[in-house]
Sequence to fold (404 residues):
Amino acid sequence: MVKVNEHYLELPGNYLFSVVADRVRTFQEEHPEAKIIRLGIGDVTLPLVPAVIEALHQAVSEMGNEETFRGYAPDRGYAFLRETIAECDYRRRGCSISPEEIFISDGAKCDCGNIQEIFSIRNRIAVCDPVYPVYVDSNAMAGRTGQYDPETGKWSDVIYMPCTEGTGFLPELPGKIPDLIYLCFPNNPTGAAMPKERLQEWVDYAIQNGSVILFDAAYEAYIREEGIPHSIYECRGAKTCAIEMRSFSKTAGFTGLRLGYTVVPEELKIQGVKAADLWARRHGTKYNGAPYIVQRAGEAVYSSPGREQVKKQIRYYMDNASLIRQGLSEAGYEVFGGVNAPYIWLKAPRGMNGTAFFEQLLQEAHVVGTPGSGFGPSGELFLRLTAFGNREKTREAVERIRNL
Ligand code: PLP
Fold:
């Protein structure tokens, strides 16, 4: 008789997020007059920039012409895009990444979830707490995380690295050595960024202990300060121990278009086997390539008008972040993040936890955030606000919170 993958049964439901969505829906039904402002969801709101739209139109026309029609894309991605990425995202920053080390995909979420497949089930993972849930859940589905304890919200075989006010929201090198280390900086949900010398410590630690770092750089484009690496390959030796995931979602508003990529360096070997070969095998077997029109749109992000246009959008979102940061800290709130990332990590005031504060914001200010406990136990006292909203609504939300 057919059997279920029992690891799926051990997964806790994405309880908090569905509770939040239900709660907001019920509140709106009970208070139809309430003008709710949603700063909870990490999705962009500005439309695609003109350079991208133009490239899409052109690529669509090519697809309607027999001479220029394209069928299956190469499963590693078109050379025009891989070459552009290697040049613009890496060589110009002093990192020697070749197009052959770049694997185009339909987004970082899939890559972050799938990358664990090339590693043995016996590897032990380490994650930050709080954390983007995909890293842990995809390992739990594979059966790599042990037993889940609903009391603590933790898996028995996962090394959790608390990122708290006390650690400046950065993880500390774990005493118990992990095999796979997930790092995401600039961070979702805390908005923290990791200085280069701190990231170098992680690279040195991984090399020394034979670990691999899975570096999620989905928010790299939001870095505004000097000294914050845009890529882990800015660190010495990282090509021997790190895989990097990137996304066009928050960089260029591709959340609905879907494009991302993963870098697996040639030098990275697992028990003598090239990780790039394993990932190429996986990619070639389970993936048939991002659409041509989307890859052309991705290429347009790097054109000179494209670069200017997406920079302007990022400035818009980061001006929202500054507005939230400034407005709330002036009102006496403890506010973190929002300097090199589009997320603001707000400490719940007056001894409340993040969930109680979420409820107060909803009921009294009609503003929706995300309770920090949804990202892990160390998020308990926090609420995440995003800078991806419309300017006027963001300003209005800040005003309402200030007047609580
Ligand atoms: N990684 C992090 C840390 C994210 O926050 C997100 C999206 O919110 C993703 C990856 C997913 O990116 P994509 O839209 O490319 O799948």
